[in-house]
Amino acid sequence: MKTPAKMSSLSGLLPLYFPRALAGLDDRLRAHWLVRGAGPRDITVVRRPSLPKAGLLVFELRHGAGSLVIKHPRDEAGAAVTARERDVLLELAEDTRLDPWRALLPRVVGSPGPGGTLAQTALPGVPAERLVMAPSGDPYTAMAPTMRLLADLRAATGRPRKAADRAPAWCEEQLTVLFAGMPGYRSGRRAAECEALRQRLDAALTGAVLTEGWTHGDYHPGNVLLGRDPLRVTGVFDWSSGRADGPCEIDAYSFALALRSTVTGRPLGGLVAETLRTGRVPDADRTLLALAGLDPYDGVVDPVAIPLLSWLWHVVNNVRKSPRFGHSYGWLTHTVAPVLGECARWAGARP
Asked: pLDDT of 212-255, one tens digit each?
């Protein structure tokens, strides 16, 4: 893939090495230091919001007409994320099925920087989460373009597959990462809850037929950009969890969960646990999924199949991005424990 001319000068601004002393600097100072070779008059560095536990420093570098997003790893986990995202972006760029949506995807610029630094093109628009939190308007209506895009991508790249046949990649790989990333869940009652999660997934996906195709893996309002007049998707970023053979349905449901969590103020783990407990997908989620051409009751015997699989990929994404999640009392309490507890209750109630 050729580097755009206006981006080529930007890609040469990255430094040759990153000493450990940078770890103690404020992120904004660190970002300026990383691009120190360009001179302060030639660039504007804008720090982008990111999870405090994430192993990445992410900022936007502006220079003349060009703009790049720079992702600099803070640790080994962050380096693994940038390496994985680079591979996915290059694979996306080579997939001709995605040509109608090429402008919505970031492009890798230049070679990997020292320490795994990734430079990619910036995309236009504002994060969809800003519209979700706007005081006026219906957030579900505003998010309709994000769902229609998923319907188009699924139609272009997807094919039906028995979930049981894809369980090693869709479930077992994820469970292995999750359990390894939560040291406090390796013995006793908590280990039993983890085993109950595996059993609940097996039961939920038995007989299910899902769509295998391009899956973002972390599709939520913070990773989708929108433009107005008309309201449309202008970009989808953070592809480190993407894969060409993932379960497409989880993107739409992950978005629906994140949206409902924002609108209601309830933690995501509690929302999924409630669905497991009632065995019923909330009407708000079904309404949004319908815009993506999906019904969580189609192709599955157990309606909790897609919500539970979506939750699994969400928590595994967090653990992969930073080991700190697996040691965070708040994250484990609000995002993980309610779902594991509900799985354990289900397992205990089985004949």
From this structure: 999 999 999 999 999 988 899 999 999 999 999 999 999 999 99
Paired tokens of 130: 């800003």
Query: What dihedral angle (degrees, nearest 10) is formed by the CA atoms of 248, 168, 160, 152?
Result: 20
Beta bridge partners of 127: 225
Phi, psi (degrees; rounded to nearest 5) at 258: -60, -40
Residue 169's Cβ-count burial label (10 Å; 0-12, 13-18, 19+) is middle
Q: Would the pTM count as exceeding 0.85?
A: yes
Q: Of 77, 78, 76, 98, which is closest to residue 89 (Cα–Cα)?
A: 98
The token pair at 45 is: 């560095």
Give dist(CA 310, CA 217) in Å, integer: 8
Q: In the chain, which residue ranges form alpha helices assigned H by DSSP?
A: 5-11, 27-34, 76-94, 128-132, 139-142, 144-157, 163-167, 173-180, 188-205, 249-264, 268-278, 283-291, 305-321, 329-331, 337-349
Nearest-angstrom CA–CA distance, 72 and 91: 21
Q: Please report the sign of the dihedral spanned by the C-alpha atoms of residue 313, residue 305, residue 257, residue 222.
A: positive
